[in-house]
Amino acid sequence: MSRDLQRATQKRIIDDPERERERERESLGFRERERERERERERERERERERLDALFRRKKNDREWRFW
Questions:
Q1: What is the 3-state composition of the chain as percent helix, strand, coil, each rounded to the nearest 5?
Q2: Which residue ranges does the record annotate as region Disordered (predicted)?
Q3: Dihedral, CA atoms, 34, 39, 44, 47, nearest 10 degrees?
C-alpha cells in the first residue's frame, strides 16, 4: 500500500465522526460499568463490616455472660 493511501486511510478512520461517537459510547458504557463494579465492591465491604460487627457483639455478649 502506498504511503499516501495509507495516510489517507488512517486520517479517514481518525476523522470519522461516527467512529468517534461509537468510541464515546463505548467509553461511557465502560465508565458506567466501572462505577457499578465499584458500588458492588462497596456493598460487599459493607456486608463484611456488618458481619464482623455482629460477630464481635456476639463474642462480647458471651464474655459478659460468662463473667457473671
A1: 95, 0, 5
A2: 1-49
A3: 180
pTM for this predicted structure = 0.48
Residues 6+ apart with CB under 8 A from 9: 1
DSSP one-letter code for 68 = -
Copy the grid coordinates of residue 34. Answer: 466501572
Q: What's the rounded Cα separation, in Å, for the pair 61 and 63?
A: 5
Query: Which residue intervals of 1-68 are DSSP H helices?
Result: 3-15, 17-67
What would the pLDDT profile of 2-58 be if each residue is shown by its tens digit? 777 777 666 655 567 787 788 887 777 888 888 999 999 999 999 999 999 888 888
Residues 6+ apart with CB under 8 A from 11: none
